[in-house]
Amino acid sequence: MTKGKPWTHEEVKRLLRLVAEGKTIEMIVADLEKSRDAVYHKCRRLGLVEEEEGAKGRTTSSIRLPKELPSVEEALKILAGALQAASQSGLDKVEVQRLQAIATLARTYEQLVSRYIDYRGIEVMLIDMRKKYEALTGQMQRQPRQWGNDGNKSLEAQGGNG
User: Fold this and answer.
1) Crossing angle for the helix pair 9-20 and 25-32, nearest 10 degrees?
2) Is the CATH code 1.10.10 the one for domain 1-52?
3) Which of 60, 63, 85, 131 is the most buried (most CB within 10 A)?
């Protein structure tokens, strides 16, 4: 399943030495002239990268709920920051994916906040209309009845009693 050039015994020895010396992955990639993914996967196959059992598919972060919702402006600032960071050259694949996720989440958040604000506005209007309706029905109950069930003026409202 090798996609690139196979590792030589010399390259594997150098990889083991560089890892033992505590070199960063960037240094190892430059020294071996291999891709970051190739070095990472070779380290995994050699058992040089520790992975928790069952770590695949699990999240590595927890979600803390904020006390206050960020404003639409704050979400747009996060989106703008992600866009600026994404325009830098030399980003690795993981960083690009992280920035794409941030941009997607910021856009989604902005849309949801806009809907929430609309719903809150509608809710305020409904509450106001309910108060006005209750005030009107209260007034109608206090006034004498002028109209009958058939839509015609009642005898009381016509001034007669029968």
Assistant:
1) 150
2) yes
3) 85
Tell me the per-residue pLDDT of 15-60, one tens digit each, with 9 for 90 and over: 888 888 888 888 899 999 998 888 888 888 888 776 544 445 444 5
Tokens of 23: 């070199």
> And the tokens for 119?
């719903």
- Tokens for 12, please give them: 């594997």
- Encoded tokens for 68: 């206050």
Provide CB contacts within 8 A for 110, sequence distance 6+. 72, 75, 76, 79
* Whether the Cβ atoms of residue 110 and residue 76 lie closer than 8 Å to each other: yes
DSSP 58: -
Pair of tokens at residue 97? 């994916």
B/e letters for 33-47, b = 16+ CB within 10 Å, e = fewer, are ebeeebbbebbeeee
- Domain boundaries in the chain? 1-52, 66-141
The pTM of this model reads 0.35
